[in-house]
Amino acid sequence: MFTTTTGRLHPVWAFVVSALFSVLAFLVAGFAAGAIAGDRVLLFEAIFRPLLALLLIAVFAWLLTAADHIEDHRVAALGLPRAKGWLKQFTTGCVLGFVLTVLAIVPIAIWGHASTRFRFSLHTLPRVGAVLLILLLGALAEELMFRGYPFQHLEQGIGAIGAIAVFSVMFGVVHLANPGASPWGLINTILIGVLLSIAYLRTRALWLPWGIHFGWNFALGFLFGLPVSGIRLFNVVVRTTASGPQWVTGGSYGLEASATAVIVILIGVVVVWRLPLARLAQPASPTPETEYRDSLSGIQP
Question: 135, 218, 260, 275: which one has the fewest Cβ atoms less than 10 Å from its Cβ?
Answer without folding.
Answer: 275
